[in-house]
Amino acid sequence: MKKNEGKSKPYGYIYQIKNKKNGKVYIGQTITARWRENQNPIEERWRRHQMDPAYKREQGQTLHYIENAILNDGPENFEIKEIDTAESQKELDDKEKHWISYFDSMNPEIGYNLREGGADGLFSDEAKGNVSKAITEKWQNPEYRAKQTEERRTRGKEQEWKNNMTKINREKGKDPNWVQKMTEINQERAKDPEWREKMSEVMKEKWQDPEYQDKQAKERKERAKDPEWVQKMTEINQERAKDPSYREKLSEAGKQKWQDPEYQGKQAKERKERAKDLEWVQKMTEINQERAKDPSYREKLSEAGKQKWQDPEYKEKISNAMKNKWQDQDYREKQMKARRECTKKIQDIEQFLKDIQEMNKKKEINEKYEMDGKTINRRIEDLLGQYGVKNYTDARSYLEGKDVKEILNQIKGESNETGKKQEESSIDEITKENKDKNKSNNDGMKEIEKEEPTDLESDLKNLNLKTEENSKDFDYLKNESSEDKEPTENYGLENKKESQENQNQFKNVAESPIGEESEDLDIFNDSDKKDEELDEKSEIDDLRHENFGSGF
């Protein structure tokens, strides 16, 4: 039993206990981690085999076959020896099964084993009946149940014991058969409402302990580093989310949590920390963009937002929070900087589009053009919005494999066409205005002709007044025409020439090239006011999510 001294110890051992009086055998296993470094696992296991039966009998506990035999025949009539080793829990379980089968030690005439071996080893029919009956009877006793519970709690506080059990269970968890078996057992248990309620109460009690919360948080962070675990949990949660009752339950739990100001503050703090991680921000952006493609999701968000804004208390909270934010000098400077960035122009549109094509990260674009992500997205939408492009991701997809110059020419062409339409509209309005003036003057002349003659003094007075009014109209029309035209004695002809020349003048304007003063399509200036409005809305949205969460 000392042949392994001086060598590195294996994960575990398979041993045999033999009754010298009748030749019956018992096959068992033990792991090295259960014992201290200076202890021999086989010797220590045999010492426990000798001690446990007497203790169990004293406590009134049920004894196994091998324990009864040791008590009845005496430890001196038994011998123990190592028969195999293993380097993992799975290998240890497999070898235990092999040796139990090899010695046929589940046969009551030959051995003392009650099950096939390993973590998932099946009990013999006789053993099943005896164990089930014994356990059921014992657990009917409230004192026994309380005692067992207390013992398990006491053991659970021993760090060494917890570490050993954790290691054992993790090894077992690598065996798909064991995992499947335990899953089926728990699924069967979960059908019992009383069992579910009991487990729920137990977990609630556990989560009241800050130490337990910290432990769980650390474990989950560690697990989150494992892509396989993340994928597995994602699939599980996606499957759960198909159940409307489950979604409703989660929603109600979330709403209840957000009523707690302490929870709100904690979440706000955590989100601020996460927001410093650019990878996390990018990941959440992609997730939210994908969600936003679902009309029902957008409608749900919209309704939730409208409902919130019906609450005067909520409005007051947002208003006060914004006022408090603007009291912060750093925040003010940050917002002013962002607004200045909103008014910045892209000087070289062609290079800007090429950079979107070639640069792999949006952060590089932001740094080169000294703008934040929102401003870059607005510039992109101003430039390519007519093609359904709204942000950097859309632009990357739209520009992929395309010639930037061709796209630029296309934008210029459409811009010119828009300009011509606007100028033609202006020409039509001015031409109509001149026609209306001509008609008014002609109607004035006709009125003079229609007037009946009166006495000479009255006629002269009326004629002078009409002449003075017509003279003012004539001067007005003459000033409207170009300065190099020669005056005409014919009043109607003069008006026709003026109208024609005005039309020609605006026709020349319409045919002149659009945008000659700026080859880079300075189309952003008109969006400044829009940018400021969007900034303000974005600030409010950010603040809502930062301080009050989604609410569902």
Care to describe what's here?
By secondary structure, this protein is mainly alpha-helical. Among the domains are: 12-139, 3-Layer(aba) Sandwich (GIY-YIG endonuclease); 416-451 and 458-511. Helix content is 69%, strand content 4%. It has a three-stranded antiparallel sheet, sandwiched between helices. Strand 1 and strand 2 (25-31) form a beta hairpin. Helix 1 (41-59) packs across helix 2 and helix 21 (404-450) runs antiparallel to helix 23 (491-511). The longest helix is centred in the C-terminal third of the chain and has 47 residues, at 404-450. The chain is elongated and about 140 Å long.
Describe how the helices and strands are arranged.
Blueprint (H helix, E strand, L loop, with lengths): L11 E8 L5 E7 L9 H19 L5 H9 L4 E9 L2 H15 L21 H15 L2 H15 L2 H14 L3 H14 L3 H14 L3 H14 L3 H14 L3 H14 L3 H14 L3 H14 L3 H15 L2 H15 L2 H14 L6 H10 L3 H8 L3 H12 L7 H8 L4 H47 L5 H25 L10 H21 L16 H20 L5
Antiparallel strand pairs: 1-2, 1-3
Helix pairs in contact: 1-2, 21-22, 21-23, 22-23
Attribute tags:
single chain; 552 residues; mainly alpha; GIY-YIG endonuclease; three-stranded antiparallel sheet; 24 helices; 69% helix; elongated; disordered N terminus; disordered C terminus
